[in-house]
Structures are given as structure tokens and as C-alpha cells.
Amino acid sequence: MKAAVVALIASTVVAQAAACPRPDKGGTARVLTVDPAAYPRVGLQSFAQTLPLQDREVVLTFDDGPNPATTSRILDALKAECMQATFFLIGQNAVAHPALVKRIAAEGHSIGHHSFAHPNLGLVSHAEAVAQIDRGISADELALNGRATTVPSTPFFRFPYFQSTPALLDVLQSRGIAVFGADFWASDWNKMTPDQEQALVTARLKVAGRGIILFHDTKAQTAAMMPDFLRYLRENHYRVVHVVASVPRQSAGPVTPK
Prior knowledge:
Blueprint: H1 2-11, E1 12-16, E2 28-34, E3 41-42, E4 57-63, H2 68-81, E5 86-89, H3 91-96, H4 98-106, E6 110-113, H5 126-145, E7 156-157, H6 166-174, E8 178-180, E9 184-185, H7 194-208, E10 211-216, H8 220-235, E11 239-245
Parallel strand pairs: 2-11, 3-8, 4-5, 4-10, 4-11, 5-6, 7-8, 9-10
Antiparallel strand pairs: 1-2
Helix pairs in contact: 2-8, 4-5, 7-8
């Protein structure tokens, strides 16, 4: 038991989030700094392990952006509640909207990576998949920091469609990049009203009790729902955890595919 506690402390650092200047808002409860070496793959929908969250703690994640019409509305909703999230960007969208990438970072959110063009990486060759991963990271970093590099500032990656291969998982782990799945999702790739989406995701949250939630910041229904959903979290005493990464320890370039 003592060894397990020591391992947990070594792999994660918990910090108090900055106080929200509006006491009537939800705020971010804490910051969880995750070492990808200890948490290389998280999210119970895909993997055996997830983040060490307490009851009623949630991590908010958004895929496929940035998209000006919808990402901006979601950022506004998060800002109004003083909540932080993680955005997994598609590289070609980051190239098209660098100012929005910078806004995501400037408002304190984490930026992860989601390939360059969102193909199913389980259906292409290993070399093509690695190239998609690296090109996406490079595009995101160029939009964020003005420098194209395959070493991500935040070493978080989510596979499009959650479709990976053992070889790709090994490549990312060897480079110190954590792979995020999700514990449950809003299923917002399906057409539904904002009220229907809210009912679906809150029902799943009640069952799960905690976890990494997947949304898509490109969906109009999600953008419309988000203020009400964040208010629901606050009013029902759920706590938002902001996930950040420790300093990446991978090499300065991609692994040559075998």
C-alpha cells in the first residue's frame, strides 16, 4: 500500500487552481499535472487505466477544433465559469485559425493533438499514421508558438475515432506522449438538440460519478449547450480538474517508423 501511494505521488502533482474572481461561479477545483511515463494511456473506454480522479471530479476535453463559430462560444462559456479544459486540435484547423489557437492557450487551457487531417490511423500504414501524428503536432506548435516542431509543448494525443494500433501506442509512449481516450462521451457526433445532449451527458455523468468527458468544439449543439452544462456541474457540486503535463522528456524528433 505504501509503495502504491508513493508511486501515485511520483506520477502526478496536484495543485490548487487559481481562485475564480466571481465566487458565484464554478471555477476549476484543482490542477492535475500528469507524467506521461506513469500515465501513458488513460480513459476507460479504450484502456484499463484512467486519471486518478476523486468522486464528482471531471476533466473536460474537446476534439476537432479550432472552429471560430463554435470554439469561441465554448471558450466564452468556460471563461464565464472560470473553468479550464483540454483541446485536442486538428493540425489543419490550427493552421487555418492560429489566433484562436493562441486564445485557447492564453485563457489557460491545455492544448493536445489529434492528427493533421483526422484520418482513421488504424486503417492506414504505420508510416502514414506516424506522419499524420507528426504533421499535426508540428502544425499545432507552429500556430501556438510560431515554430514547427514534432516535440509537443503539451505531450497529449488523442487518436481520431479512438482507433490506434499497438505499434502506434508504442511509438507515442517511447516519445513520452500520453494517449487520451475518455471515460465517457457526449456522443455529439450524432444529430440532437442541445437539451437532448445535456440530458444524455448528465445521465452518463450520474452513472460514472467522475471521469474524462469527450465533447467536440466543432459542434453547434455542444456550443449551445455548454453554458447550461457548466452551470449544471456547479449547481450539482461536480468539480472540474484541469489536466496539464510535466515537461516532456522525449527526443527532439520523431521516431523513425519500422
